[in-house]
Design a protein that fits this description.
Phosphorylase Kinase, domain 1; Transferase(Phosphotransferase), domain 1; six-stranded mixed β-sheet; 24 strands; globular; disordered C terminus
Length: 617
């Protein structure tokens, strides 16, 4: 190992003596090491040379337990281990104690796991007796393979997260699979930041399933940065509070007297609920904290339906057996306060069968909660992208959903007293009632205009990747054609069951819109369609829907149809439909567009400040 230290020094000397060319970045010198140096003879690692000459070191924190080495199930990439030293935390601390600084170390995130064969399926925790590998010859399973296996046995599989070891596991028959799912990856990213590590790396990116782990790692890093800012505020605010204590006490008592016709106070300003809403708009009820606490069984995990950027959502039951959904602003949320005020304000103006109804809100005890009608069939994405649940949505049900979403958007754009742009139309925001009727939800990012205003501009880019039109991503311009574009993406997903976060085609280099366009243009559009769908007995034809969707996602917003035109084209079989041009965010030039075609490089050319404001939801 002494020679390795000399080699590192020689490499570093060679790199620094190399003539610098401004067009070429300097080489990076790294190495990968075992999770701890203690498995090697003491003093063998040239830690001083590693510290001095390497840019960073990848610490391989995996393989502690495998089915071929252990007759007990184990966390192969445990972050912590209360029963021994086989853990990433132990290894990282050992390297630091051995002379490496934390900012030289990079933590591994494995996108794979291992499967054991249980001796007794009822004894299925970590450390359960096992008799070798399961499913594969060595038990090794990629994350995407694990998720596919879970989806095949969806009704009988429960994925468990063990926070003690920081690992996920599940049991399928006699097979026990240990792996890092969303919770484990998020915890490890937080650990790397709190420990002051250089960062983290994954093995391997292609093992991911629809970018699930990669996206949660990125969001966890963003959340960690926000926590640091909040920590700074936590330190500074107590100092400032000495000077404003009296004013705060006065504000506190004033906030206790809030009525629905009055104002909702937020921090030092108040937001007034509009009084000039439509005469038939519903009155919003002010709920007490005690009633919501009782309805949700004290916000129990058993009642939790999910969680978004605003905060957790709970199912509840009021006295009289009315079922409700409660969206509670999380204390760590950075976007929820504005969305809360926006949604309360807009709801006073909206009433339509295809829009989710907000029953009221609760603002007691500094809480911010929105109370909705409960949708028992949850959201559309739970069916579209699930190979089993997808069969529930035959073509007639999908037509009903398409028509319902179209009617809801028509109301927002044409029939309401104001023009309302939703700005976040997507499959997870289309909720389904007991009869699978759709309702558009989540108006937290919506914007309201007078009828004589056509478009607006914003410096803050918000929305969901894959549903944002190009003019908004590049220039912050939004109009009614924003929701038309999002609807076009949604319509393509409804007829295909495909996600817009994946790549398709023979070389897997086409996004969803490009793939649909190329197949449609080549006269083989049926290859894009979900094979389980049959439109033979329906007046609404799948290929007509595909052509309308491609019109909606065209690059130029002027060339996209209005929602009224979309409605007419879908309902009137004899109405002529224009030929779509190549969709937005396409790689290749379209001969119909000429110089207006946009390359993929142009799509992502907006500056860093815009990109940092784009908020996945």
């Amino acid at each position: 190992m002494t020679n390795m230290g000399t080699l590192f020094q020689d490499w570093r000397t060679a790199i620094e003596s190399e003539p610098r060319n401004s067009s070429q970045p300097q080489l990076i010198l790294t190495a990968r090491v075992d999770y701890t140096p203690k498995g090697i003879r003491p003093g063998s690692y040239p830690t001083q040379s590693m510290q001095q000459y390497l840019d960073w070191i990848h610490v391989q924190c995996t393989g502690y337990y495998t089915p071929q080495k252990s007759n007990f199930t184990g966390a192969h990439a445990a972050l912590y281990n209360p029963t021994g030293i086989l853990s990433a935390d132990y290894g990282i601390n050992t390297w630091i104690e051995g002379g490496l600084s934390a900012n030289k170390l990079v933590l591994s995130l494995p996108y794979f796991g291992y499967a054991w064969t249980l001796v007794n399926p009822d004894d299925n925790g970590i450390g359960a007796p096992a008799i070798g590998p399961a499913i594969t010859t060595d038990g090794f399973m990629r994350y995407r393979g694990i998720k596919d296996r879970i989806r095949q046995h969806l009704s009988s599989v429960k994925v468990v997260y063990d926070a003690t070891y920081v690992v996920n596991y599940c049991t399928i028959g006699t097979a026990w699979i240990g792996f890092d799912d969303v919770e484990a990856v998020k915890a490890k990213v937080f650990y790397a930041k709190e420990k002051g590590l250089r960062g983290y790396y994954v093995w391997e990116v292609p093992y991911d399933y629809n970018w699930v782990l990669s996206e949660v790692a990125a969001s966890a890093e963003k959340e960690n940065q926000e926590n640091r800012r909040r920590l700074l505020l936590t330190i500074l605010l107590p100092i400032a509070s000495v000077f404003i204590l009296t004013a705060c006490m006065i504000c506190y008592f004033q906030r206790k007297v809030i009525k629905i016709k009055g104002s909702i106070f937020r921090s030092r300003r108040s937001i007034t609920i509009p009084q000039n809403h439509e005469s038939n708009a519903p009155n919003l009820q002010v709920f007490s904290f005690a009633s919501i606490k009782d309805a949700t069984n004290n916000f129990s995990n058993a009642n939790k339906l999910g969680e978004g950027g605003f905060g957790p959502v709970y199912k509840g039951q009021l006295h009289g057996n009315q079922e409700i959904a409660v969206k509670r602003l999380a204390t760590t949320s950075t976007q929820g306060l504005e969305e809360f005020e926006n949604e309360v304000s807009l709801t006073a103006r909206l009433q339509h069968v295809n829009l989710l109804r907000v029953l009221g809100y609760c603002i007691e005890r500094e809480e911010k909660m929105l109370i909705y009608e409960y949708m028992p069939n949850k959201s559309l994405d739970k069916y579209l992208f699930d190979p089993i649940r997808g069969y529930v949505l035959d073509w007639q049900k999908r037509v009903n959903i398409i028509e319902g979403v179209t009617q809801g958007l028509l109301y927002l754009q044409e029939y309401s007293n104001f023009t309302i742009i939703h700005r976040d139309v997507k499959s997870s925001n289309i909720l389904l009632d007991a009869e699978m009727n759709p309702k558009i939800s989540d108006f937290g990012m919506a914007r309201l205009f007078n009828k004589d205003v056509c478009e607006a501009n914003t410096g803050k880019i918000v929305g969901t990747y894959g549903y944002i039109p190009p003019e908004y991503a590049r220039k912050g311009i939004y109009s009614m054609k924003y929701d038309v574009y999002s609807f076009g993406v949604l319509l393509l997903q409804i007829i295909s069951g495909k996600r817009n976060t994946c790549y398709y085609g023979a070389y897997e280099n086409l996004n969803l819109l490009e793939y649909a366009y190329e197949l449609w243009k080549g006269g083989i559009g049926m290859e894009f369609i979900d094979p389980s769908l049959d439109d033979s007995s329906s007046s609404c034809k799948i290929m007509r829907c595909m052509q309308v969707a491609l019109l909606c996602v065209q690059e130029n917003p002027v060339e996209r149809p209005s929602m009224l035109e979309v409605f007419s084209m879908l309902k009137t079989e004899t109405m002529a439909i224009p030929t779509p041009k190549k969709p937005a965010f396409s790689v290749n030039r379209d001969e119909n567009i000429g110089s207006s075609s946009t390359s993929r490089q142009e799509v992502y050319s907006f500056n860093d400040s815009q990109l940092s404001e784009l908020e996945p939801r």
